[in-house]
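Before the break, one more example. Copy the sequence into your notebook; we will annotate it together after we see the structure.
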Amino acid sequence: MQMLNRYFTPFALALILSAVYFSEPEPRATKIALAILLADVALNWLIGRNQYRWVAWASRLRQLQVWLNFVWAVPLFYLLYPYWAPMWLLFVMAPTAAALTTSRLETVICAAVSAAAMLGLYCARQTLEGVALGMALSHAVFIVIFSLFVHGLAQTALRMRDHDLS
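Here is what the structure looks like once it is written out:
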């Protein structure tokens, strides 16, 4: 999870701050998005900093962190997507975290939930037809495929590590 915090938290920061700075959404959306971002960063930092102190809870904390990343992606996407199209990338983070820390089935479930939520939010914001439908579906497929790819890489790394130990 530290690797995810090291790379995905700065990416989320850059994505959201870019959306706020360059697209200038309405002030209410900006305030809510920044509050969610601060809560996300603070909680991810707190969990990452204390994960060794709470070793008995490590598995549960990883699952909590995965699903919190998903939960926070939903309102951030809803608020900022109309102003900044790359916001869909927030839905890649939770399934990627799941891919590194959970089973293949849990990875698929997380990716499917993320993709479905993103598609639902797209539908809530616009009519999905033609090019918009194609883009939304390709984003959803990317979320699932990328998560499975990362899971496969993580499993390969574990097999190589275990092979070298024996």
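The longest helix spans residues 131-165. The helical segments are 2-23, 27-50, 58-80, 90-101, 104-125, 131-165. Try to locate both features in your own notes.
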